[in-house]
Amino acid sequence: MTGIKEIIQSPIFAKQKKKLHKKQINNLDEAVKSIFQDPTFGDIKVGDLQGVQVYKFKSLNQQVLLAYEVVDSTLYLYTFGSHENFYRDLKKYHK
To answer: Which of 2, 26, 59, 93 is most buried (CB neighbours < 10 A)?
Structure first.
């Protein structure tokens, strides 16, 4: 069991989630549960995105990337989406 006590969604994350279909929301929720259980699942990024981790999962036969960060006992969910422009947009938000 992890020491995560709180999960915080960024405004961008919440806005994107509202636009999803039910099946996609379920897939996203399963990915978040996986991260909650073991925060080391994601790939740790370096450089401009130092500290951010990206977890990859499938939703409706498409790969989705989910950016998050664990600080102390809080899980911050930044954004998710397909690979196209994902890191560029994440860098803008993370600054």
So the answer is: 59
